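Hi R.,

Here's the input for the LLP complex you asked about:
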Amino acid sequence: MTRPPFHYQDDTLHCEDVPLATIAAEVGTPTYVYSKQAITGAYRAYDDALAGVDHLVCYSVKANSSLGILSMLVAEGAGADIVSAGELYRWQRAGGDPGKVVFSGVGKTEAEIKAALAAGILAFNVESIEELVAIDRIARAAGVVAPVALRVNPDVDAQTHPYISTGLKQNKFGIAADVARDVFRRAAGMPNLLVRGIDCHIGSQLTKTAPFSDAIARLCKLVLDLAADGIAIDLIDIGGGLGIDYGKDGDAPPPSHGEYGAAVKAALAPLKALPPIKLLVEPGRSIVGPAGTLVTRVLYRKPGETKHFTIVDAAMNDLLRPSFYGSHHPMQPVHKKSAATQVTDIVGPICETGDFLARDRALPPLAQGDLLAIGAAGAYGMTMSSNYNTRPRAAEVVVDGKRWRIIRERETLEHLLAGERTFS
Ligand code: LLP
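And here is the predicted structure with LLP in place:
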């Protein structure tokens, strides 16, 4: 059993072999700190779990799109799942192969479609008939044939938070399963499209394998129907990956990569009758989530009549998940304390009551100046951060053994105002 990426050594929380206090002293707070070993380990766990099936792990860039993170995954041989030309730009700037990119999203603009065609991506995951028509037209004007997969909405309940459930009829995503066969026929008849695949993504933070199996079963049935119609595809994309452990009491741990791999392989069995089809998976959260911690410093304590508040220098603009989804993130003091606990709200400096990172959390009593590590923050942390209240965004650091490096400088006020002008 390998050591967890964040662990106490001499009563001080370390990322791999580096004390978080050292990073905080040199880089300041708030700072996101990531373990390289955890990121590459999670990527390889997917690769290993799918061994025996022709596959490509297309990391979902939206989970964490920093160049330092992408470059590590590029070096591992990963592909990418993108949802904007911006993410494609980042992927290419990190050295990523555009030929391993799938482009999802319900609202691709003409400029984005052009950029993706010029880059030569693996496939557009197309979400509507009007989008198909647009891609065919834009490809024709560019004198190319666009590789497409149709994103099917399988109407499967992912059993996750409603904001991140995407595979139900009432969600905006994908083409309804009952009309998908007809839409495939239409796409096959469009001269500048090459129909290569079928795709689905039913939601995020999935903590069971059954919804994956159900969705794959529905896709397989459709693939067999398409084969009967003379439409042969060679890519099947099953969307995002596993949920992660956010350390909340009573929450069941997510399935292991091995369990996931076994469930996926079993569900794909009906395709054995057909010529080989490559499997694509688009995990994001489970690759970077457990690998990242947000290090923050206590500014003030405010004992109140009904509540105790601990005010830290990170806020909802740095980590939106608790206020936006009511998400729980595990928290540990960087310098280990006694076992005694105190119930407190961990809040940021932003002028909103919704600006909290934890509510009614039992933590060892924290003093002014103490460092606190907010765990499982590597996914949808930095990418969802903002400049609300004109707060520069946090720095980011990657640790590899004893070595560490800033992969993103803390923003300055100059960065924030770039491109703005006064009006008089
Ligand atoms: N593929 C597609 C088409 C997606 O929309 C997503 C996530 C993924 C893959 C990656 O899924 P994952 O492996 O990370 O579960 N901000 C939310 C999560 C939004 C997920 C959006 N789509 C959060 O912080 O929980």
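One thing worth noting: The domain at 65-283 is CATH 3.20.20.10 (TIM Barrel).

Cheers,
M.
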